[in-house]
Specification:
Length: 174
């Protein structure tokens, strides 16, 4: 097999590389401009609410699976750490699906099961705190994902549950 240095050392091949790189760069820049030119108003608040509800469902399912392991004493570190790693990423994303236009909670109104929100208006009043809580929970989930001992896995899971519960107490309307 010919190495890259050998492959592109001939003048004709260097030109081909330069042309190919230029075409690739132009294609990437072209699609970037197209994305910027698209109408962003198509993203409706109900879509963001649905996205965050879906994201929270995934986070909740992962937490349930991890807690089932710790409560039963049958901890599968490979599975549990993988789920915690997924949670860590999801929790990093979570505050970003709370644009101000989704501040739509209303008392004494029946909530639509798909697009209704139980997010407290306090999220937008104290967004820095909300953001920090999600970030802290993400870091805790990441620590769980790196646990090598069952005792650490269990202790960090309890810490993550506390983080979730405290955030829900402040920012989730029932």
């Amino acid at each position: 097999m010919i190495g890259l240095k050998q492959r592109f050392s001939r003048p004709r091949n260097r030109r081909a590389l330069a042309v190919g790189t230029t075409v690739l760069a132009a294609a990437l820049l072209g699609t970037q401009w197209m994305a910027l030119a698209q109408d962003q108003s198509a993203a409706m608040p109900k879509d963001a609410i649905f996205a965050r509800r879906t994201l929270m469902d995934f986070i909740s399912d992962a937490m349930d699976e991890i807690e089932a392991m710790t409560s039963s004493g049958k901890i599968n570190l490979a599975t549990g750490t993988k789920r915690a790693d997924q949670m860590s990423v999801m929790l990093q994303i979570f505050p970003h699906v709370f644009p101000p236009s989704t501040n739509q909670w209303k008392p004494n109104v029946e909530m639509d099961p798909e697009t209704g929100t139980a997010a407290s208006p306090d999220i937008w009043l104290k967004f820095a705190d909300f953001y920090q809580r999600a970030n802290t929970a993400s870091k805790t989930a990441f620590k769980i994902s790196r646990a090598e001992k069952e005792a650490d896995f269990k202790a960090l899971t309890e810490e993550l549950r506390s983080a979730c519960d405290s955030c829900h107490a402040l920012y989730l309307k029932q």
